[in-house]
Amino acid sequence: MSRILVTGMSGVGKTTLLHELIRRGYHGIDTDHDGWVLPDGTWDEARMLALLAPERTVVVSGTVENQGRFYDRFAAVVLLSAPVEVLIDRVSVRTNNPYGNARAEQAVIRQQVLDVEPLLRRGATLELDGRRPVSELADDVERLLAPGR
For residues 130 and 8, what is the distance between their CA atoms, to the nearest angstrom? Predict the structure, then answer.
């Protein structure tokens, strides 16, 4: 049993990594979808507590203001990071999420890299370079999910 949080800025590859881990057979939750995030931009704490209560392996993906309240429930907090220009390039062309297409949203991302990413880095147990191939990133996370395998 292991619980992993994958976090990072918009466009870093959290969803892509999560999809690869799900493809490999792991249970994964992308908190950007299905009502995990409340209108105030925080996780639904009761729902998150219920997800993390059973003894099971799960990978959670997301970045919200109150995620630090749950760090003690994760075996690892993995920060994906990449240079801001890589993030902007990715969000401007992605088709699975419209966030980041507008210049105003890109300005927010640039500011969050300065203000939020350092906070995420302090809470992370492992930082991975989001520019690496997703298969390699998934291998790294998989080792955290199944130590000794």
Answer: 9
